[in-house]
Design brief:
This is AraC family transcriptional regulator. The protein has about 325 residues and is of the alpha+beta class. The strands form two sheets. A five-stranded mixed sheet has the order 3-4-7-5-6. Strands 1-2 form a two-stranded antiparallel sheet.
């Protein structure tokens, strides 16, 4: 299921650096197809395409891949040049080490550090030189390095833990799709912990595939949340399939070869529930459809399994703070 939505917190946070530099954020939002009024509603969300477009506009306008959060700019093309520098490395470990060295050449750049911890390796980002009040850049860098590494070896790197050198924020529920696995706040540093076996894996990409990768990266890496191999992510993918969308918990448990009780317990351990996952999928599908004019609001309600439009109106307002009609009006 590709139509995941992005919390407006991340839109507001992404704009902080540009606003600090006196940029016209309203104009940037308009160009990205995002209504400014949406940002006033704490629960509102945007489509991933809109978010990716906003990031690209910010990079172009500021000529800064650090989006105005660093002491010095990281000019557009720096990330691409780093990728060209690492693409011919023999292993992921060599590639990550070379990438860290590459950014170490730039004064005032957030330091990327790779450290072994027994059978584990920690990739950490030093944000002490950044003006990043909502930690948007440091979180973006963690997502980008994780997904870049996964792309290089052709398989998702399973995260054992993501640590954050700050207190748990109010929007921490959004992190499940950004950082699958255990999350720890108030840590000594912000970083990713994963098994050291990945470091020896060969790179499966080359200069040809890198060219395609760079057409949409790193914006696409940030705009497409990924449930990883968590149970929540697996269930989300199963529910997203045509015909299985509104399956019940018992049916999904059977597909996953476990009892309903075990499924409920594992979801509780991940801080989720079956109903929450269904509601999130319904919410994201509703936002996706409301952004297009193909279906009426009543048809969308029926497609999402609501017995009557009024029930859909109540649920959508609870999810986003807006009625379906108001949300569709904001999109046009």
């Amino acid at each position: 299921m590709r139509e995941r939505t992005i919390a407006c917190h991340f839109v507001r946070a992404a704009l902080r650096g540009a606003a600090r530099q006196g940029q016209d954020c309203h104009a940037l939002l308009r160009q990205a197809g995002i209504q400014t009024a949406l940002l006033d509603e704490p629960r509102a969300r945007v489509a991933p395409e809109q978010f990716a477009r906003l990031l690209q506009l910010l990079w172009e306008q500021l000529d800064d891949e650090y989006l105005g959060f660093g002491r010095l700019r990281s000019r557009r093309g720096t990330f691409a040049m780093m990728c060209h520098a690492i693409i011919h490395c023999r292993s992921l470990g060599k590639a990550l080490a070379r990438g860290a060295l590459f950014y170490g050449l730039f004064p005032e750049a957030p330091g990327i550090r790779l450290e072994r911890e027994g059978d584990w390796v920690r990739l950490s980002v030093d944000d002490s030189r950044l003006w990043d009040p909502e930690h948007f850049l440091v979180e973006s860098l963690l997502v980008i390095w994780h997904r870049l590494g996964s792309w290089l070896i052709g398989q998702r790197i399973r995260l054992e833990e993501t640590s954050f050198a700050y207190a748990e924020p109010a929007h921490a529920g959004e992190y499940q799709l950004l950082f699958p696995g255990r999350r720890r706040f108030g840590a000594a540093s912000s970083g990713l912990l994963f098994h050291a076996r990945y470091l020896a894996m060969p790179l499966l990409q080359d200069a040809r595939t890198l060219k395609q990768f760079l057409e949409h990266s790193p914006a696409d890496l940030l705009a497409r949340p990924d449930g990883g191999d968590s149970l929540s992510g697996q269930i989300r993918r199963l529910l997203g399939r045509d015909g299985a969308r509104w399956a019940d918990l018992e049916g999904i448990a059977q597909q996953l070869h476990m009892s309903p009780q075990t499924l409920r317990r594992h979801l509780r351990e991940e801080g989720s529930s079956f109903q929450l996952l269904k509601d999130q999928l319904r919410r994201d599908l509703a936002i996706y459809q409301l952004g297009r004019d193909e279906l009426s609001i009543q048809q969308i309600a029926e497609q999402l399994g609501f017995s009557e439009p009024s029930a859909f109106h109540r649920a959508f307002k609870k999810w986003t703070g807006l009625t379906p009609g108001a949300y569709r009006a904001q999109e046009h």
